[in-house]
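Blackboard transcription, Thursday session:
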Amino acid sequence: MAVEQVPALELETQSARTFRHALNVIARDPLSLASTIVIILFIFMALFAKQIAPYPLEGAGKTNVDNSLIAPSREHPFGADLLGRDILSRVIVGARPALIVPIGVVLFAVLIGAPLGAIAGYKGGWVDEVIMRVTDLFLAFPSLLLAMAIASALGRGLDKAAIALVVSWWPWYTRLVRGVTLSLKERYFVEAAQAIGVSDWTIILRHILPNTISPVLVQATVDLGTVILAMGGLAFLGLGTQPPSPDWGLMVSEGRAYILTQWWIATFPGMAIFIVVLAFNLLGDTLRDIFDPRQYK
Amino acid sequence: MRQLEFIIRRVLTSIFVLIGVSVMTFVISRVIPTNAAALYIGPKARPEDIERVTKQLGLDKPLPVQYAVYMTELLHGDLGNSISTKRPVLDEITGRLPATLELLFSAMLFATLVGVPLGVLSARWQGNPLDIGVRTLSILGVSMPAFYLGLLLQILFFRNLDILPLAGRVSGDLRFTNPIQPITNFFLIDSLLTRNWVALKDVFLHLILPSLTLAAYPLGLIARMTRAAMLETLEQDYIRTARAYGIRDYVVTYLYALKNAINPTLTVVGLTFAFALTGAFFVEIIFNWPGLGLFTVRSLLNVDYPAVMGVTLFGATGYVLINLFVDIIQAWMDPRVSLK
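(Written on the board underneath:)
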């Protein structure tokens, strides 16, 4: 058993080293650093929305018709919507469905997709064939179109939109992890584990999957921007969060009718999507330069 | 010979994938919903209607039989009837397709014609302000939600500058002054063919903002991929040799390097075409563009299930065919592709 520990230890230090390297690069690159800070701030804002929002009740949907359509002012920096709700509060409260839920979507897509990819790549043969043909089917659809179809089959709602997005995103990680696994399979530490009779499942769990973490993490960061856009899109179409709850995409849709007169209703939530997606894309670019997960495709 | 083999193999896989796509849409439309019959009738379903449609759709039969019926209908071009318009879904789709394709083609043409040169220039002048500008533009393009960019452009060009129309495919009064004779239903082409210059200008002006909005994402991706591919090619030995021979810079860049860098770019153009299809849905809502997207979204909101599933199947089929087409072009342009 002691022999088995050695390769695992060796690879842990290796991934720890690349991780430190990545942190160094990000800390030195002002754009990536700024993006990271923006992302952390937004996540913080989403998690503590109730404490941060100046009008948490209005943020959640309570109407205040006296303030209907008031322009940005000191009390309401982003103005108010038709029902008099403070836009700033709604942008803050809306960060949870618009930002945290997509992070959860990517997490679930990875949890489903990555193990399947590792199994397909490691086992090969008919197992590989079956798993990969199934992913091909999912990838034959434009992701957002598939998500829209599934969301409409399940009915409207944030949870359903999230499920629809997970269903259309997991195959990407299966494909990526399978590629990584194929190259890992040739490595000595896997061969050594096989030689001493470690079971397939233990090898996949202990030796393959931990080594796929960094390419998956990079791909997930790059994808987060796209998933946030997709989530915003579903919300915009009315398939995600339902009123009176706030969601950035939904708020843009609600403010659409007023863009020529009360521009602030749609502008601020739209800008929130744009800034967050931009931050993820900038950070993803840097990470991709360091790790380049595409080399496994 | 290799190329022919490759193409035949790719066509066969595509047929396999298309069959898979039909299975997927079948599962989404008949198996996932708890009461598929109710979805097919719409929100006002009465119990006796549900019973009738259950029989009609064969929902009481075993799944393989249901699939066989579904597939037979599909092969006869029968996608069912739209709940809201009562007309066959296929007619609804094909009737609206030209509007969407006109938008899609102009956006992709713009994205490619601008994106590729920008990517090339950016790679040629790596590190220059031009390069930084192009990279900024491309990352902004891929980070901007289409439905938001559309609104911003409307505010700028309609409300503030008042030089472009707000929405729609033509002006409201064009119908009375210079009506377009429908030939292809691509309004640009129709007005050109009939030499209807007033209409041509009107159609063109209406097309600018939606196309720009739709082009932003593909433009960003294309510029960035072209740049990456060019950077890789420009480092090759044969480029250095060409330069050593004193061949003019633009000949080396555009003729020698671009030729080898164009393949990854083509893949991206094909891929973004599919992204643009769903992007077009949002652009159509923002600009009230009477195409497939507006129809789809209306169907989504009205829970017009046959229509939604018809569009899904149609879109996936288009996506598979575009990918096939891109692969064939690649194999034709670069014989090495057939060897993979």
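Lecturer's comment: The interface with chain B takes residues 133, 136-138, 140-142, 144-146, 148-150, 152-154, 225, 229, 232-233, 236-239, 249, 252-253, 256, 259-260, 263, 266-267, 270-271, 273-274, 277-278, 281-282, 285 of chain A (CB under 8 Å).
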